């Protein structure tokens, strides 16, 4: 007895044309690969610096941006490129940390103690101003696919001084690169 199977006919060339080669399905992205990259830039207007004399952490508003992960177990790599400034009449210190807000709850980003990413100090015996470009990075594991607001905060310590993140005149300059890494 002979059994014959019949498959419906299709045009192989037409099926190939239907494929979208410009986008790999997200579920097929290999672990360790970059899922998405977001670039955060300084505001175009309103000034591109945040200055404070506070000894408690305050927001550096120019650094705020939103990021929405595609996978719940992804890691987010954040790389900041910013200008800093400190003015002082004696010893001065500047601290910078990263905070994240998910569904209205704000916490430290990354795994650093108190979220601290950067500490910079100047010791001098008179009035001085110190400028410095810095790059800082952290890896965050937010465990969510909700939108995350990331921002930097800064404070001063030591003598009374002014600390600054950013620089006026650098409107629309790159501040941060955020990359989602598939796990």
Features:
52% strand; six-stranded antiparallel β-sheet; 183 residues; single chain; mainly beta; five-stranded antiparallel β-sheet
Give a brief description.
This protein has 183 residues and is mainly β. Helices cover 4% and strands 52% of the residues. The chain has one helix spanning 12-18; strands at residues 34-41, 49-52, 58-67, 75-88, 92-102, 105-108, 116-122, 128-140, 148-158, 162-166, 174-181.
Q: Can you tell me about this structure?
A:
There is one protein chain. The strands form two sheets. Strands 1, 2, 4, 8, 10 and 11 form a six-stranded antiparallel beta sheet that branches. Strands 3, 5, 6, 7 and 9 form a five-stranded antiparallel beta sheet that branches. The chain has 183 residues and is mainly beta. It has one helix and eleven strands. The chain is elongated and about 100 Å long.
